[in-house]
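Methods, example record. To illustrate the input and output format used throughout this study, we show the complete record for Alpha-xylosidase. The sequence lines were provided to the predictor; the line carrying structure tokens was produced by it.
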Amino acid sequence: MKFTDGLWLVRDGITINGAVQNYAVEKTAEGLTAITQTTPITGRAATLNSTLLTVKFHSPLPGVVGIKIIHNDGVIDRGPSFELTQGTGDHVQIEETEAQTVLISGGLRVVINKGTHWSVDFYRGDERITGSGYKSMAYITDQDGNTFMREELDIGIGEFVYGLGERFTAFVKNGQVVDLWNKDGGTSSEQAYKNVPFYVTSKGYGVFVNQPELVSYEIASEKVKKAQFSVAGESLEYFVIEGPTIKEVITKYTSLTGKPALPPAWTFGLWLTTSFTTDYDEATVNSFVEGMAERDLPLHVFHFDCFWMREYQWTDFQWDSRVFPDPVGMLKRLHEKGLKICVWINSYIGQRSPLFEEGKKNGYLLKKPSGDVYQTDLWQAGMGLVDFTNPAACEWYAGYLRDLVDMGVDSFKTDFGERIPTDVVYFDGSDPHKMHNYYTQLYNKVVFEVLEEKLGKGEAAVFARSATAGGQQFPVHWGGDCYADYESMAESLRGGLSLGLSGFGFWSHDIGGFENTAPAHVFKRWLAFGLLSSHSRLHGSTSYRVPWAYDDEAVDVTRFFTKLKCSLMPYLYDVAGQAHEQGWASMRAMVMEFPEDPTCEVLDRQYMLGDSLLVAPIFQENGEVKYYLPAGRWTHLLNGETVEGGSWRKEKHDFFSLPLFVRQNSLLAVGSEDSRPDYDFAEGVKFGLYSLEDGKATTATVRDINGAPELKVEAARSGNTITVTAEGSGKAFTFAVKDLGAIASVEGAEQADETTVKVNAGATSVSFTITLK
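The corresponding predicted structure is encoded as:
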């Protein structure tokens, strides 16, 4: 939201009361409180009819400092509020001189100037990373009596801003106006399903605005050297989070707002759906499932979209008996084929649903100020919305979900949650403006917790569209409604990379696009991208997404990349474990892994899948692709070609290939199974050691099906000698050197050929030495 008219003027009707002078800084039990004036004090008379801002500093975690700017402190906080880690602050140090008061938290120093020129500066050691200057913190009013709180933080020369949720606009946010307000706007506009008030910069720090309502950002737009954010009201709280790397910033941010849960291994397999408005019944479903099996296409999850329920009655949680007369038997038969089952739901209750009357009678639906149930015809005729601030409504909704799980459902696609009105009254009195974005958090939490309760911790997974800060705790999320073209494929990737830089560990998208039907070449290129994503789903709107509906080659491409993904599961599930433990996205923007490479700062058409694999999807019918390899030696996973990085490359690929490179100094674990994602990853695992440099060491961890580390292997090179140690499972594995020449000799294990070593089962601690020719 813009308040100024260029650099010199203020917009008509706007009054800005900006912080100009420090009146006092006081130590408190939480940290520091500063009182700042918005007009210079030249004498006692100047203290009258004036505006003060109270600025509170505290630190819940090392390297994380919260700043709360308050004008009037008598406003009732009606909630909701983000659920944040509440630290003790024991790690905080306070230092004071005549000129400054300093709060130190981990590697972050906050310097408050005591002089007549107000400023707050944030330092990493001796490096100033950002700051709030003269008049940046401000209380603002307009001609209608509306009030706003604003902050402006400095953006340095060459500094780029990322994140703010799943955004489909330009990957680098500099120059953009971003209003965080969840909307169902598809993937081709500035609107977003997942708005997250957190950004991270190429300087290695992040800023989280602790406000669930509309936060309006001007990122190097209203003022080109400022990241400005504002909210309506009388207070504004934000946290500065120091890295020093982007990965460390995200680790601290997710320690504050919640780590992603680890999805069960089966969710990483291929999902196939009925599509949205297509006609289907059990025979249709069986034809899809049998068609996949006949063509040797590994399938792991089958999803029933909206019309598993009767039209006009969404959501009633009842199978449409006209097309699914025996749902319990059908789900049992699908389970016997090795499939998991997902069904579509949302939190809206159509008036023709039997649940509408229950919800109306018991006060489970959102109400208007008049006391009437809020209803709309947008989506389902006469629908109401479940009020998840009412514990009884949560239990009511959860009860129907439990019945479905008992019937054989393994997961829920939690669609919608964005079109949440503000002219309503919540059961617990929550502020409806703050609830607009936060509603999705309560919705997905209820569903996720039912799955945990019924299936066990570690077995829960939703397929969610909407989210806000903290939503990463309830994976998986998908990118929403995209078109079936290369442009939407690219914008989807931008959105996923932005979401990954906002603390979300797992992300998916509709392979081939949701709207319309893709040409076969788009579908096949999207298959490679989709099956080298965290999660992989074939889904559309008006047509089926079975591969043979496109052409015979699409079947072969599906098989090739699905089996490739299954074989990579020992590596991918460790990447998933890192997302769960550290908050790092499975699909990582290049700048996240290569923060020192300036070329990587703006790349948004390629990504790192974990820390070892580089993926560059192809967005052209002719198979041409231009991509960048950072410095170092890279080996193509599919053909073994080794190239030196540090430059751009242009190539042409058929549908069974794309730039897919292993980073030097990687130890890549590949599984013994290629037909399913949930198997014993340590049994018969193959380790490939890629371009290990002299004097370097590298490790790989193989986890069990529950995500616990089971086998850890380390390789260290000194000259032509590689020493390998393994701790853990006691299961047999093989170890191969890549791009290192041939093996001259092996001590402590059995050599299989010129590049491969066999390690027999039995010992949980193994050590052997490889001498290269």
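Annotations derived from this record:
The longest helix spans residues 432-455.
The chain has eleven helices and 49 strands.
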